[in-house]
Write a structure and sequence with these properties.
The chain is α+β, with helices and mostly antiparallel strands. 57% of the residues lie in helices and 9% in strands.
């Protein structure tokens, strides 16, 4: 092949006769095709063969050509004839190179079109990153591109030969077995299809870095467009009254023709206004106004397809010709061309907009005429748009261009408002516009971890559109990746919330059947079984993450489904058993509450999706404000922390340049409606359910004591309930109120009572579990108890809790406006005295001997400082508590409570003999239910006494059984000022439309 290459460039080309020259090129091309079409692929030989073709092109075409044959152009016509052959060979080599993994990043390369063998190997500079490219495919690209340009130069000669029916290559008839005749291209539609596949791969290259090698990419697009425009002229369409002649091969040809042609106009190298100045000038010098040229070629070809419109259609749609073969181009899954048409219409080019709008409108009218519905068009368009917008090689339109497209096509529409097609057409355009806007927003999100959460939210919104058009695969894959990511970090709560998103897209339908799913992995099963499996997985993850409130809601939802949708005794038994375990853990397992923070993003340095927004973040347990400061500064590089709320208000009113963060600690709102007669753990459970309200309090200036202490309490209500996906939720409503001094007193006493109740619960539970008193006295909780008791019975700073007596005996108590507050404050104060008395007795029984003098001082101070309250409540402060009797009393109280519960449950089943039998089973300690009740570890009596403990189990169950799994978990932040989410109705498969209520 090296000898052939040198011969083509040698003296024979210029000195020998025309016959000798033709013989030279005939035999040279025979050698080339024997190598390229050989069954055994030899990459090195193929590269040298491609060098021969390039050498023949250099001597016969271009400014520096040696052969001048203006009359016959026999050599050039031969070279145009081998274009479709090389396209077919290129497809074969393309598949081979990818199968052999030859298109991989590497640091060595060889010269293109080498003239020596073996090929010299060069090494890429160490400063340049590894690039993925394949030399032989690059050489195919260059040769085919030049052949396409040559085809345009020989356009008139090719038309003349085909018009005269000439199918002979003249002097090169010896190559006919390799290249065929001119007429074969017209009569055999498979050859154009092979060409289009190769040209598509050239315009979307993955065998070299297209975004970087932009000159080669621009030249490939230009040459492919030239070839496509001329090739379409030679392909004849059958008459409109014989649609059966419009074969599948012809349909594939025209689909690829429009797709590839339009792709040339929508690539980055064609949308030169988005390139930098030097690159823009270089590309324009190579391609010129490529988009206008594509628009003309598309318009001419599009006009060959439609049929004349009837008078009724002209009046209804305002078009003179449409349908025809248009309907055969955009059916079923053949919507890639449709997607390219829409992107073509979004270009900043007047001709592209004009031609693209007309094509889109023709397609809409054609679909409506044939199907009387645009859902199938919407379904396929959304799916294809998603693939296009996520392609980094694509030009991405801007929101203004999407808006202009929608306005232009609405102006083009002549459909009357009263026409039945009007609203479906407008809805289709609106959905496409919204989807493109979301896709544009996704690509516009900057890289970096600070935007990961928002990027995930936008992906979820995009997934909702795909769910609407029966394309659940993307959502399933996205949620599966989130689920695996959180599991790898041992974040089981977030993993469960991720599954919640997927579960909410299914219905409790035992009839609808779903195919198998790979990510996450599920077998083919009914929709009910799929959702059941997801809820079970969610509940287990919540239990593992110690978020038992969410686990209860999962099992309650399953119970409702088993009772109402698909009655299942085994399922009911399973759920009740799991609920028993969860409820027992809720009452007996101590859990640490996480910290919560409010964060406000201020300044123009934040993107519009974050600017001015207020969020609630869930932090770690006991996380300090300085820790969250460091975390947020790392997440938002360059941000400055605002220290005061007044300064934050000024920045919110007049946003500055830069990034500013205002962060403060907030606490969950405690519902005062929760009965204080319940145990502390039960109260905690009820308050943690559906947690979406948080409170922050700051002291107003001018206060000197508790009687004039006014505070400002800010309440934040979030879009989502906590725990929330990604541990944050946007604040949807903020309320600011001023608290009077007496309300501040009530608030302080409530916090103190809660703190003391927690310590009492911990000590009594430890005693009941048989923990040695010495171990308890050496624990951290006991040290905290000593510290809190000492500070409460006699606080030398600010007067302690005794200072609140002024509200009970002073002027405020006589004001009718504060009657309710005074009563509530009195109850809180009395509860505090009772708790102090109980805890001092426990402290006395557990305190080590070396600390007993300090304990006696605390008792004396308690009796002295709270003498009036002790006498009023008739509390016994003298008697000594015996630990053995206390433990026995706690255990006896539990047994008594269980017996009361048995009698209560037995009475509910009284009636028929069957019911009586059930009742006896419940009261029988040998039955499974009786064993459960007899062994139930009930700690409620230790806090509230035996009078109310018998109904605790019912109280907990009644408080939770009516709740459903909060839909807020499956919702996510939408556009500013809105909440986006979905709930699925209808079947997702089987051709029926899935309606997702987009909030």
């Amino acid at each position: 092949m090296l000898f052939v290459n040198r011969s083509v460039l040698g003296f024979l080309v210029t000195t020998a006769s025309m016959e000798a020259r033709d013989l030279l090129f005939t035999n040279a091309y025979k050698c080339v095709f024997q190598v390229l079409e050989n069954e055994t692929i030899d990459i090195d030989a193929a590269r040298m063969a491609l060098g021969v073709i390039l050498s023949s092109l250099s001597v016969s075409f271009g400014k520096d050509k040696i052969i001048i044959d203006n009359e016959k152009k026999s050599l050039q016509l031969l070279q145009t004839q081998i274009t479709h052959v090389l396209c077919k060979i290129f497809n074969r080599y393309y598949d081979y190179c990818h199968a052999q993994k030859m298109v991989t990043p590497k640091r060595t390369y060889t010269q293109l079109f080498p003239s020596v063998y073996p090929f010299p190997v060069n090494t890429i500079d160490s400063n340049v990153p590894d690039e993925a490219f394949c030399e032989v495919l690059l050489e195919f690209n260059v040769v085919i591109s030049w052949l396409c340009v040559l085809t345009l130069d020989c356009e008139e000669d090719i038309k003349r030969l085909i018009g005269n029916g000439v199918d002979d290559i003249g002097m090169f008839h010896g190559l006919r077995p390799y290249v065929g005749g001119f007429m074969e291209y017209v009569t055999d539609p498979r050859k154009p299809v092979n060409n289009h596949l190769a040209l598509k791969r050239l315009t979307q290259p993955d065998f070299y870095p297209g975004p970087k090698w932009i000159s080669l990419k621009a030249f490939s697009n230009l040459s492919c467009q030239h070839y496509l425009a001329e090739a379409a002229v030679f392909v004849q369409l059958p008459p409109l009254d014989h649609p059966e002649l419009f074969t599948k091969e012809m349909q594939d040809f025209w689909i690829e023709f429009f797709s590839t042609n339009l792709r040339c106009a929508t690539s980055k190298v064609a949308s030169i206004e988005h390139l930098c100045i030097l690159t823009k000038r270089a590309v324009y010098n190579i391609t010129g106004d490529l988009r206008t040229r594509v628009a003309g070629a598309i318009e001419r070809s599009w006009a060959r397809f439609p049929r004349p419109a009837t008078p009724e259609e002209i009046q209804r749609f305002g078009i003179t010709a449409f349908d025809g073969y248009h309907g055969m181009l955009f059916t079923d899954d053949n919507v890639n061309a449709l997607t390219e048409v829409m992107l073509f219409s979004l270009q900043r080019n007047d001709r592209c907009i004009e031609v693209g709008i007309n094509m889109c409108y023709d397609i809409i009218c054609c679909y409506w005429i044939h199907q009387q519905d645009l859902y199938e068009l919407e379904r396929e368009t959304i799916s294809a748009l998603y693939d296009c917008f996520l392609n980094p090689e694509r030009y991405t339109p801007e929101p203004a261009e999407v808006k202009n497209f929608l306005v232009a096509i609405q102006k083009r529409s002549a459909i009357d408002v009263e026409d039945e097609a009007y609203h479906p057409a407008m809805k289709y355009l609106q959905v496409c516009g919204e989807f493109m806007s979301e896709a544009i927003q996704l690509k516009a999100i900057p890289a970096g971890p600070e935007f990961d959460d928002f990027r995930t939210f936008v992906k979820l919104r995009i997934s909702s559109y795909l769910m609407n058009v029966d394309k659940p695969e993307l959502l399933q894959s996205l949620i599966h990746n989130m689920y695996e990511h959180y599991l790898s970090k041992n974040d089981y709560v977030q993993a469960g919330l991720s599954l919640q998103l997927l579960a909410d897209t299914y219905n409790w339908d035992p009839v609808a059947y779903l195919p198998a799913c790979n990510a996450p992995q599920f077998p083919a099963q009914s929709e009910f079984k799929r959702k059941e499996a997801l809820y079970t997985m969610m509940a287990r993850k919540f239990v593992k993450g110690n978020r038992l409130e969410q686990a209860v809601e999962c099992y309650d939802e399953l119970l409702d489904a088993y009772r109402d949708q698909n009655f299942d005794l085994i399922g009911l038994s399973f759920c009740h058993g799991e609920l028993c375990k969860v409820f027992k853990s809720l009452e007996s397992v101590g859990r640490i509450e996480p910290s919560y923070f409010m964060m406000q993003c201020l300044g123009f340095g934040f993107p519009t999706e974050n600017r001015g927004k207020v969020y609630i973040f869930e932090g770690e347990a006991f996380e300090h404000i300085t820790s969250i400061h460091h975390r947020m500064v790392r997440m938002y590089p360059g941000a400055k922390i605002v220290k005061t709320e007044d300064e934050a208000k000024k920045l919110a009113a007049k946003p500055p340049i830069g990034k500013y963060l205002f962060i403060k600690t907030v606490v969950p709102y405690r519902n005062k409606a929760v009965s204080k007669q319940l145990s502390f753990m039960t109260q905690q459970y009820l308050e943690r359910k559906e947690l979406n309200t948080f409170v922050s309090t700051r002291r107003l200036p001018g206060s000197s004591n508790v009687t004039n202490l006014w505070t400002e309490e800010t309440t934040y209500e979030t879009e989502l309930t906590f725990p929330a996906l990604m541990n944050r939720s946007e604040v949807k409503q903020t309320n600011v109120v001023k608290l009077s001094p007496i309300k501040n007193a009530v608030k302080s006493l409530l916090e103190k009572n809660g703190e003391l109740s927690t310590l009492e619960f911990w000590i009594k539970r430890s005693l009941k579990e048989g923990i040695d008193p010495k171990t308890i006295s050496n624990a951290t909780h006991f040290n905290n108890l000593s510290r809190i008791l000492a500070g409460t019975v006699d606080s030398p700073v600010n007067g302690g809790v005794g200072q609140y007596r002024v509200f009970l005996t002073g002027v405020i108590s006589d004001d009718p406006e504060y009657d309710n507050d005074v009563v509530y404050l009195k109850n809180c104060f009395d509860n505090l005295i009772k708790l102090l008395n109980n805890l001092l007795k426990l402290h006395e029984a557990l305190v080590p001997a070396n600390l007993r003098p300090q304990h006696e001082v605390m008792v004396e101070l308690f009796q002295k400082n709270f003498k009036a309250e002790i006498e009023e409540l008739k509390l016994d402060t003298k008697s000594v508590l015996k630990l053995d009797e206390l433990v026995q009393a706690l255990i006896s109280a539990n047994i008594r409570n269980h017996r009361n519960q048995n009698r209560l449950m037995s009475s509910n089943y009284a009636g028929s003999s069957t019911d009586m039998q059930s009742s006896s089973n419940l009261s029988n300690p040998n039955s499974s239910t009786g064993n459960f009740l007899a062994n139930r570890d009930d700690d409620t009596s230790s806090l509230i006494g035996s009078n109310t403990s018998g109904s605790i189990h019912n109280s907990i169950h009644s408080a939770s059984s009516g709740s459903k799994l909060s839909s807020a978990v499956s919702s996510f932040s939408g556009r500013p000022g809105s909440t986006a989410g979905w709930s699925a109705t209808g079947s997702q498969y089987g051709g029926k439309r899935t309606v997702l209520n987009y909030k």
